[in-house]
Amino acid sequence: MAAANRYYYATRDPLGAAGDFTTAPEISQMFGELIGLWLADLWDRAGRPDVHYVELGPGRGTLAADALRAMARAGLTPPVHFVETSPVLAAAQRARVPGATRHDDVDALPADRPLLIVANEFFDALPVRQLIRTAAGWRERRVAWAHPLFVPVAGGPPLDALIPAHLADAPPGSVIETSPASVNIARRLARRLADQGGAALIVDYGYEGPAVGDTVQALKAHAYANPFEDPGERDLTAHVDFATLAEAAVAEGARAFGPVDQGVLLDRLGIGARAAALTAAQPARAEEIATARMRLTDAGQMGTLFKALALTAPAWPQPAAF
Ligand code: SAH
């Protein structure tokens, strides 16, 4: 999954109608603006310190551009840092947010100031491991090459410690996912927040686990595809276990809030007022703005499947909307 996604993101811009999937910031400017204001409010209540803006996997840079514009109206104009491995998307980000510094890894982020961190649809692209319950017990799921296809197979027994006690007796066929890569990044971000100050907003589709479920999926041209076919040519994702990320962050000394549903977050941050203001300024776009708001907040669309988790430094204020 890691190797396939590395190739996938390195070789294309997958976003938008002509690509494989669309994300919240590409649906409407309201998404990035409200996140920018959420950060500006926290920064203001933290005493307006010098900070860095950090985004993990910024895609085309659209969220950052919208957030930074809204933050500037509140007097917040921090240096910008992008953690991005794709050269194709890094080029799009440079065009959209000139002056941003790119890093390959969170360890390269500056250590001198509090960090305001945003990650939208970043963690779902990180690899997961799957454990499957077979008639003979739990096995780690592996990927085998059965010419001309990759196929999932049951491998050896996993470490007992990987199986949460309350799921140990799940029926045969049950799958449990873990994402060591995601937990590792959450830990390192949390340690930075505890050491340097600041806050993080993690938005993605996911659940509060650990739970049973095979959530690995592939998207090609906005349709579900077989994740075992055409590796590197399809977007591979897995749902994010927010409870496990929060627990990892707390263990490193950060505070965790949520997750709250994306629809609830955006309603509480005032998407209704923002949509009304945009509509008043451009009445001809009324329908498009209403549709975008619905896609972002409606329970049947992105409103409940997508969730937001907030992390803060221990001494930072309680974030809005959580
Ligand atoms: N946040 C953007 C893009 C989401 S797509 C949006 O909401 O539109 C996932 C992003 O994460 C892309 O920018 C991709 O290049 C980046 N990415 C994926 N795996 C990564 C990794 N291991 N390290 C750094 N960036 C990664």
TrEMBL record:
GO biological process: methylation
The organism's place on the tree of life at top rank: Bacteria
Keywords associated with the record: Methyltransferase, Transferase
Listed Pfam families: Methyltransf_28
Keyword Protein biosynthesis: no
A Gene Ontology molecular function term of the record: protein-arginine omega-N symmetric methyltransferase activity
UniProt keyword annotation of Transferase present: yes
InterPro entries for this protein: NDUFAF7, NDUFAF7_sf, SAM-dependent_MTases_sf
UniProt protein name: Class I SAM-dependent methyltransferase
Organism classification: Bacteria, Pseudomonadati, Pseudomonadota, Alphaproteobacteria, Sphingomonadales
